[in-house]
Backbone:
């Protein structure tokens, strides 16, 4: 019987697991990596896609008041003047007069350079947007920016969405996409990088109802993390002080997660008021007012914005799922990922490489692949293979043994409890589907529990 041992998912353990098992690699690894950019490997891309899909399902598919968008990363340069990013999206930068390293002054605890103790310059504002040029001529007129948030693509499409969907307030628009920030200080693995993915909702409401919807989304978003398995004690809400508020926000709460380096922002929920629509109306000259059929009023909607990071969520789900337990003389590393997020839903393991077993195992593998991402492993002992699947969070292992050739049954071994049940191959898909959706089949009479 496995014994729980007190474990801390340190960042070193997470980074090492991610690299070793193909979740996340440094970008341009063979060239020594590129600071604060990351590549998602075969398992990482599955995990991150599953997180994005779970988000989309919860905030678009399962709701009647939301639609999706996928807007371009490069936008008209006026967007960033109107949004205030050109003027105000900056951090206070200080430089060490000795070693010339640069720091965000708000990250520093002392007055001197953390690297060499040297004297620091006075802070100056450093704009975080990446600039590039559009077209063959590089001049001021061709300057465009890589978007620092996906939100602006939603605001500038507000009228397009209204015209084509005929949605009534309150309603929201969701988008998942890349954003870029030339962060002064990065680090903590994928927590803060210069290229990252956001999952943003802009929810348009009638002014005066914004408080209600703000609280509603704060609860909704917190519950989303809980439903996908994040432990309650690892999440909290924190209200922004006046000094912290972004230039567009009337109020803001962070949902914070207890990351290995301490409590830090996982998602921000902001009340952006009518700032963005008013600014875009002013700069574009197009009215972005809403006509309320019921009250016959024209007004500019207020916007509630739950803005999450796909990479930060990936890190939080990895950290929260990481577990170690003593199993006989070994430490079993288990990623207790929610089945909806696990990269592989199952792995097929023939007990040996004997052709008769491989044939059955391959047939099962091909069949299950039609429904889910499924792994296959026939290298080394079955115990080692279970450990490998535990470590990447595969909820179920399906073992094909010699008895399977006689009785057309296989063993399903569960990641968390390590319990095993024997099931007919003909029922495997149905049983797996039920198990993946959370049904406890050990209590059902059709199958026998082995251990
Ligand atoms: N549209 C609002 C907005 O962008 P934000 O608090 O700056 O608000 C929202 O960003 C979320 O995007 C954060 O909670 C975080 O999850 C993610 N995020 C922001 N900057 C990031 C970075 N440099 N690296 C990774 N994720 C980041």
Residues:
């Amino acid at each position: 019987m496995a014994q729980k041992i007190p474990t801390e998912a340190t960042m070193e353990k997470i980074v090492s697991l991610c690299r070793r098992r193909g979740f996340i690699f440094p970008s341009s690894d063979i060239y020594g990596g590129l600071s604060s950019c990351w590549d998602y490997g075969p398992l990482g891309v599955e995990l991150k896609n599953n997180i994005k899909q779970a988000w989309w399902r919860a905030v678009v598919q399962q709701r009647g008041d939301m639609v999706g968008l996928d807007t371009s990363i490069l936008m008209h340069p006026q967007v960033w003047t109107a949004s205030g990013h050109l003027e105000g999206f900056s951090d206070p930068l200080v430089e060490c007069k000795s070693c010339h390293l640069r720091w965000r002054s708000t990250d520093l605890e002392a007055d001197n350079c953390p690297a060499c103790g040297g004297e620091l310059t006075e802070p100056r504002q450093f704009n975080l947007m990446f600039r590039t040029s559009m077209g063959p001529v590089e001049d001021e007129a061709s300057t465009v920016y890589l978007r620092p948030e996906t939100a602006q693509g939603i605001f500038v499409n507000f009228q397009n969405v209204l015209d084509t969907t005929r949605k009534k307030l309150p309603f929201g628009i969701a988008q998942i996409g890349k954003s870029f920030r030339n962060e002064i200080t990065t680090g903590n693995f994928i927590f803060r990088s210069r290229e990252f993915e956001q999952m943003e909702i802009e929810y348009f409401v009638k002014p005066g109802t914004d408080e209600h919807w703000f609280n509603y989304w704060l609860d909704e978003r917190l519950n989303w993390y809980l439903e996908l398995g994040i432990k309650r004690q690892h999440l909290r809400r924190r209200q922004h002080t006046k000094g912290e508020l972004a230039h567009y926000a009337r109020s803001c709460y962070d949902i914070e997660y207890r990351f290995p380096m301490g409590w830090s922002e996982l998602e921000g929920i902001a009340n952006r008021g009518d700032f963005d629509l008013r600014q875009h109306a002013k700069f574009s000259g197009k009215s972005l007012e809403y006509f309320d059929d019921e009250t016959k009023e024209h007004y500019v909607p207020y916007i509630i914005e739950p803005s999450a990071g796909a990479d930060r969520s990936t890190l939080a789900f990895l950290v929260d799922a990481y577990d170690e337990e003593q199993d006989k003389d070994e430490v079993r590393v288990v990623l207790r990922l929610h089945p909806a997020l696990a990269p592989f839903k199952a792995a097929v393991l023939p007990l040996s490489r004997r052709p008769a077993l491989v044939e059955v195992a391959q047939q099962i593998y091909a069949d299950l692949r039609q429904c889910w991402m499924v792994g296959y492993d026939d290298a080394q002992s079955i115990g080692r293979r279970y450990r490998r699947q535990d470590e990447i969070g595969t909820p179920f292992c399906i073992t094909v043994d010699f008895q399977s050739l006689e009785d057309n049954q296989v063993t399903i071994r569960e990641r968390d409890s390590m319990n095993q049940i024997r099931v007919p191959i003909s029922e495997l898909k149905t049983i797996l589907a039920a198990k993946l959706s959370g049904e406890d089949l050990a209590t059902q009479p059709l199958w026998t529990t082995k251990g």
